[in-house]
């Protein structure tokens, strides 16, 4: 269990403390068993003495307190580690480049932060109790050895056989678990498609039926895989329980036939063996839960390592960048790798100049490279060649974040946060006039740094996204098809009043648009075709 070793290394409590508490719990359990046996024997001669009663009470109290302490420490430590892992994964997502995140996929990230973390949390009680019962089995076995070596031999033979059979089947169970996880990831991907593709599904009833049918098939495969695992564990549990009852039968009926010294201790040894049924059942039930947690931890640590590998440079400069007066692209380009690792569609080389107090329109058909150009411009993907410079300074990887901090953007696939993250409270009041101008003052308010609602139409949400970009008040504003979701009134307002106002404020404004009716508003129009600028005109 390499992942649990990593988990233990991150725990603040000394493992030796946990070990000694577990041993103390097991010893107290064994003492309770021994006291019961002695008291039962003394009952024939008048009953147990006060000393035995006190010893029983002390051992019981010690068992309860140590078990409670171990479970509490284990829960606190494991939940603390899970919280740190979750935080590291979230921070890793924030720090990773877009290519790494695209490779990891949303479904895997969501599964790690929800399902895997829950699996680790669920194992905490079983991990604590299972460890205690494992040590208890060891001490009870030693107690059985003290009572009768023949009975001890039978117990050891049973335990060795049970462990051997279990580990023989673990490889198959791991494969089935992997298949179940793969099916579950397919289900997550399918559900994401169902939620995001509602517009397309509404326009084609047959497509909707096909999507649901495909999801039903994936769900059945997931159910079959998970049911197979649970059925195997149920059979394992029943087989081990049955074998243990057979062991008790061997101790009662067979062992007395091969030894003459067993009769006096037969009842006590059998009682001890029966006492082991509970811990054995707990351990057997704990194994699949802990196995799921081990699998989840492996996935969490693997995701954390992948995110670490995809992190941006850790030597990024923290000094802020002066407001850009000029952004220059010189032979900037990007090449997409295809499925075989070769290069497919490419964008560039791009040469362009964007100045403060100017508006630039980017136009072009679908697939012309506009989206890739924007990702290059804002540094979401690394350039394959060429340079991007600001105020004469070539932007290196170390200065990329400082450059990005000068940009505001509303992308075509923008995400609107409910809270105004990263925006100081004194800027919130500045949103009022633009909210009113964009017809949103009766729809949404800013309360304690958050929007009162996001239940708005597509056009209203995009107008609200522009409000957020406006109160960020950064020197560069990038808008991707902003007017596409707006009615004629707000489209005209955008082109004839809002954009000129940004130019008057000295911003570098870059808009992707197809509205040729308003091309005259721009100082520069750049057309893209096949990944390159093919036309440029000053207006």
TrEMBL record:
<feature type="transmembrane region" description="Helical">
    <location>
        <begin position="143"/>
        <end position="165"/>
    </location>
</feature>
<dbReference type="GO" id="GO:0005524">
    <property type="term" value="F:ATP binding"/>
</dbReference>
<keyword id="KW-0812">Transmembrane</keyword>
<keyword id="KW-0472">Membrane</keyword>
<dbReference type="GO" id="GO:1904680">
    <property type="term" value="F:peptide transmembrane transporter activity"/>
</dbReference>
<protein>
    <submittedName>
        <fullName>Cyclic peptide transporter</fullName>
    </submittedName>
</protein>
<dbReference type="GO" id="GO:0016887">
    <property type="term" value="F:ATP hydrolysis activity"/>
</dbReference>
<dbReference type="Pfam" id="PF00005">
    <property type="entry name" value="ABC_tran"/>
</dbReference>
<feature type="transmembrane region" description="Helical">
    <location>
        <begin position="48"/>
        <end position="66"/>
    </location>
</feature>
<dbReference type="GO" id="GO:0005886">
    <property type="term" value="C:plasma membrane"/>
</dbReference>
<dbReference type="GO" id="GO:0034040">
    <property type="term" value="F:ATPase-coupled lipid transmembrane transporter activity"/>
</dbReference>
<dbReference type="InterPro" id="IPR011527">
    <property type="entry name" value="ABC1_TM_dom"/>
</dbReference>
<keyword id="KW-0547">Nucleotide-binding</keyword>
<feature type="transmembrane region" description="Helical">
    <location>
        <begin position="237"/>
        <end position="258"/>
    </location>
</feature>
<dbReference type="GO" id="GO:0015833">
    <property type="term" value="P:peptide transport"/>
</dbReference>
<dbReference type="InterPro" id="IPR005898">
    <property type="entry name" value="Cyc_pep_transpt_SyrD/YojI"/>
</dbReference>
<dbReference type="InterPro" id="IPR027417">
    <property type="entry name" value="P-loop_NTPase"/>
</dbReference>
<feature type="transmembrane region" description="Helical">
    <location>
        <begin position="17"/>
        <end position="36"/>
    </location>
</feature>
<dbReference type="GO" id="GO:0140359">
    <property type="term" value="F:ABC-type transporter activity"/>
</dbReference>
<feature type="domain" description="ABC transmembrane type-1">
    <location>
        <begin position="22"/>
        <end position="292"/>
    </location>
</feature>
<dbReference type="InterPro" id="IPR039421">
    <property type="entry name" value="Type_1_exporter"/>
</dbReference>
<dbReference type="InterPro" id="IPR003439">
    <property type="entry name" value="ABC_transporter-like_ATP-bd"/>
</dbReference>
<keyword id="KW-0067">ATP-binding</keyword>
<feature type="domain" description="ABC transporter">
    <location>
        <begin position="327"/>
        <end position="539"/>
    </location>
</feature>
<dbReference type="InterPro" id="IPR036640">
    <property type="entry name" value="ABC1_TM_sf"/>
</dbReference>
<keyword id="KW-1133">Transmembrane helix</keyword>
<dbReference type="InterPro" id="IPR003593">
    <property type="entry name" value="AAA+_ATPase"/>
</dbReference>
């Amino acid at each position: 269990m390499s992942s649990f070793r990593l988990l233990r290394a991150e725990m603040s409590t000394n493992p030796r403390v946990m070990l000694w508490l577990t041993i103390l719990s097991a010893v107290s359990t064994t003492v309770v068993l021994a006291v019961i046996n002695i008291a039962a024997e003394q009952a024939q001669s008048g009953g147990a003495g006060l000393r035995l009663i006190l010893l029983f009470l002390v051992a019981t109290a010690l068992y309860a307190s140590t078990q409670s302490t171990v479970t509490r420490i284990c829960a606190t430590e494991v939940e603390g580690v899970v919280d740190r892992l979750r935080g590291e994964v979230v921070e890793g997502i924030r720090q990773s480049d877009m290519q790494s995140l695209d490779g990891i996929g949303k479904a895997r990230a969501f599964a790690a932060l929800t399902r895997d973390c829950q699996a680790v949390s669920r194992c905490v009680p079983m991990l604590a109790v299972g460890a205690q019962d494992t040590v208890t089995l060891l001490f009870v076995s030693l107690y059985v050895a003290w009572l009768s070596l023949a009975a001890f031999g039978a117990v050891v033979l049973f335990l060795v056989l049970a462990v051997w059979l279990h580990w023989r089947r673990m490889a198959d169970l791991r494969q089935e678990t992997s298949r179940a996880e793969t099916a579950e990831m397919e289900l997550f991907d399918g559900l994401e498609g169902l939620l995001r593709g509602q517009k397309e599904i509404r326009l084609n009833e047959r497509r909707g039926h096909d999507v649901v049918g495909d999801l039903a098939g994936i769900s059945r495969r997931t159910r079959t895989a998970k049911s197979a695992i649970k059925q195997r564990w149920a059979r394992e549990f029943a087989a081990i329980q049955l074998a243990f009852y057979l062991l008790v039968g061997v101790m009662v009926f067979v062992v007395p036939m091969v030894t003459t010294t067993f009769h006096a201790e037969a009842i006590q040894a059998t009682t001890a063996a029966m006492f082991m049924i509970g811990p054995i059942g707990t351990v057997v039930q704990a194994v699949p839960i802990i196995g799921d947690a081990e699998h989840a931890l492996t996935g969490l640590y693997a995701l954390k390592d992948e995110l670490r590998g995809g992190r941006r440079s850790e030597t990024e400069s923290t000094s802020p960048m002066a407001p850009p007066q000029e952004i220059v692209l010189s032979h900037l380009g990007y090449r997409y790798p295809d499925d075989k690792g070769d290069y497919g569609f490419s964008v560039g080389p791009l040469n362009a100049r964007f100045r403060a107090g100017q508006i630039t329109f980017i136009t072009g058909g679908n697939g012309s490279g506009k989206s890739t150009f924007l990702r290059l411009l804002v540094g979401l993907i690394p350039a394959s060649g060429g340079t991007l410079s600001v105020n004469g300074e070539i932007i290196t990887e170390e200065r990329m974040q400082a450059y990005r901090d000068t940009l505001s953007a509303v992308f075509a696939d923008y995400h609107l946060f409910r809270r105004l993250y990263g925006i100081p409270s004194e800027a919130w009041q500045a949103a009022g006039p633009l909210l009113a101008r964009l017809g949103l003052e009766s729809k949404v308010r800013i309360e304690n740094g958050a929007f009162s609602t996001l239940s708005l139409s597509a056009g209203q949400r995009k107008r609200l996204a522009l409000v957020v970009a406006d109160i960020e008040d950064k020197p560069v504003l990038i808008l991707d098809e902003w007017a596409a979701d707006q009615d004629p009134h707000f489209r005209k307002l955008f082109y004839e009043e809002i954009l000129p106002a940004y130019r008057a404020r000295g911003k570098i404004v870059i808009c992707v648009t197809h509205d040729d009716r308003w091309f005259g508003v721009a100082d520069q129009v750049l057309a893209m075709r096949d990944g390159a600028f093919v036309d440029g005109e000053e207006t």
